Amino acid sequence: xxxxxxxxxxxxxxxxxxxxxxxxxxxxxxxxxxxxxxxxxxxxxxxxxxxxxxxxxxxxxxxxxxxxxxxxxxxxxxxxxxxxxxxxxxxxxxxxxxxxxxxxxxxxxxxxxxxxxxxxxxxxxxxxxxxxxxxxxxxxxxxxxxxxxxxxxxxxxxxxxxxxxxxxxxxxxxxxxxxxxxxxxxxxxxxxxxxxxxxxxxxxxxxxxxxxxxxxxxxxxxxxxxxxxxxxxxxxxxxxxxxxxxxxxxxxxxxxxxxxxxxxxxxxxxxxxxxxxxxxxxxxxxxxxxxxxxxxxxxxxxxxxxxxxxxxxxxxxxxxxxxxxxxxxxxxxxxxxxxxxxxxxxxxxxxxxxxxxxxxxxxxxxxxxxxxxxxxxxxxxxxxxxxx
Length: 388
Ligand code: NAP
Description:
Number of helices: 14
Strand order of the largest sheet: 1-9-6-4-2-3
Bound molecules: NADP nicotinamide-adenine-dinucleotide phosphate
Strand content: 5-15%
Largest sheet: 6 strands, parallel
Distance between the termini: 49 Å
Helix content: 40-55%
CATH architecture of the largest domain: Up-down Bundle
Radius of gyration: 20 Å
Shape: globular
Number of domains: 2
CATH superfamily of the largest domain: Dehydroquinate synthase-like - alpha domain
């Protein structure tokens, strides 16, 4: 009797964050009995938590809180150190990260540096905090990164001019409070970018070398929900059903990458973000077609699942074209220009990016396949404009 070929892999699964997922939960902090210590340090961005009301609800509930509201997009080591100094000077006992992935990531570093001597740079790597960080409450207000349920903080290392990651199981938030009503104020462009980040994370999780049966299950669900609800929310930004399912899908994508990590798509995207200020989710999405055409060669069964989940037809004789077709169809449906030439990228640096990433073996750790500099240059070119 023949059996279908499957991946029979050994795996572990660790996700210690308590999830509270509830519409308007930001208004119920007292009845939800959320309190992780004495004085909290609230870490947030410049505006959005004031616009969606999250900051004032937090200050009503925790009147002794200290606020750091200067986190920028793609936050830097300088910002992390400034925020952590404020936390330490005020002898805060716990940290609240509220906003998109940027403030949530900075809140994790603040929590870590409160109990471990700096500088921030010395913690890029894995499990380097010696002492337990302060407890963290994470409140995401974008549907994109899932940072509220991951052990990562992605920070721009000023000295290296690169986005680098602090990975430490000790910075998993203790509680993730997910309130879809906080995402109703997201502008269309941020909704698009952040949801594409979540889609990318889930797709990458499926083809990662660290994929597990649990993460595959969650990632497929996440892809399905994003392909279903993103087109709806772009036309109906006030649709709380759509906001609910997209925040849920984003959280699933975080649970996935907490186990699987991200793959080459994310590593390539960092070049566009750092050099052309292209939002993180858009930058990733610009590499989905070229990279998943390659993934289709190495992992056709997994890519078949993605194609069918997003609503496409998989042709066993042409896996590469099948994934390209369904992604193009989806991107056109959501009006996403999927070549980087339309996002202000010039072709003159692509060769340099290819040579740079080729040297950094860490970026390939979760990615199937072998890549030469020429392959990487071809991928950059396909992302820039397929016709080139
Ligand atoms: P973000 O950089 O946190 O925020 C993007 C923009 O959205 C900001 O202008 C922000 O305004 C605004 N915004 C946030 N919530 C809003 C709301 N509810 N209404 C209106 N505007 C809102 O975006 P992000 O995409 O969520 O995070 C990206 C960062 O996360 C990147 O640095 C990426 O590398 C990192 N990341 C981390 C992980 C992880 O596991 N740790 C995973 C993936 C990505 P304000 O600045 O005023 O708040």
